[in-house]
Amino acid sequence: MSEQRRICAVLFDFDGTLATLSIDFPLMRTRVLAAMQKMGIPISLLKSRYVLETIEEGAALLKDGNSEGLLRERARKIMEKVEMDAVPKASLFPWVAKTASDLAADGIKAGIVTRNCRRAVTAVLGPAAALFQALVTRDETRTVKPNPSHLWQALSLLGNGATEPKRAIMVGDHPMDMKGAKQAGMYALGVMTGAGDKESLESEGADSVCPDGSHVPNLIRTLNGADRLPVTG
Length: 233
Prior knowledge:
alpha/beta; six-stranded parallel beta sheet; 44% helix; disordered C terminus; Rossmann fold; 2 domains; single chain
């Protein structure tokens, strides 16, 4: 593979990819919808099944910017409370530190992109946060994945050539990670440690699927030495 095409960066999703952070999303959605209803938003008109998108739908139904800001702030507090409640039972997968160290030894920059809040992610990461050169949570962006801007923002923090999407891999357990990666122009690598299975990941564009993220360093070595990654798992 030419030097211009070599992979030099990898972005990881967090929940279900690097960690077991079992957030109660049904509870989160119920509480957010209740708050929206109190503000007079007709929740029967909301169509998205994802909380962040539901909030934006609701904000669009409000009459003024002040109300939109109030909604987002109330929703933020509700979401962060539910996420922080999940932290005590969360843990990183046992291979995370070694995988990050192996990537660094190979000269591969590593970052994290997540729709979770920074407080919860950093609490679970603990000292392992130092192993990643970028962390972009929803607190740092209004355009969360699968919007490709979320991924591009993280790549921009890695620098030194890693900003080129064609030289980067997105690793995630959810189909939206694969969708975001393809829209961003990145290689999409699915892992089966969370929300998605092989079929759902491939249906959103996964170029390859692995059992878990511990396979990432070897897969990048393979990709950098061949035309394409093998599909495994």
